[in-house]
Amino acid sequence: MATKKCVNGHQYDSSIYGDKCPFCPSSTSSADKTKITENPSKKTKLIGDIETYIPNETLKIEEPIEHDIPGGGTIIRHTTPTGDTGITSGNRKLVGLLISYSLNPLGDVYKIYEGKNLIGKAPTCDIALIGDNYISSSHLLILYREAEDIFWAIDQNSSNGTYVNGQFASDRVRLNTNDIIVIGATKLVFLAIPQC
To answer: DSSP letter string over 29-92?
Structure first.
């Protein structure tokens, strides 16, 4: 085995990987060999030959300059002004967390924001748990209003119901830190974030 050390100190087999360290994302991805096409004066981005208006967002189109990267192509990263990707919370304050080890043995963390937080397996839910077939499309609503300073768990007439601390939640139930919520086959631990 012909080992080589990259500039970041990683040791790898150069007979397999050549001069490209497999542990350094910048040396194996096209991100370091790209150009970004943007037109900030018009709030538009040039995608191929089409100029697209993008309100209040940043769209980066990265085109590989060199084509020696396996599987090359165009990478499009969509970010909001805060840098988040995916479904955003808008201007809502982060007030709690749900933690689960049911679908991922390493754990998943889901953010709870002020107002309504719909949980279900539908991709349009605020928290989409698509890996659990026993969860309804719209299963549970967690509601927080700053004026009340109370978290509520409200079952959405789901097929298999909602359990909070082992009790069936037929009506709305007040949530406290470390409460255990079970929906379908997924167990979630609720944590309230103290408001300063």
So the answer is: SGGGGEEE--BTTTTEEEETTEEEE-TT-EEEEEEES---STT---EEEEE-TTS--SS--TTP
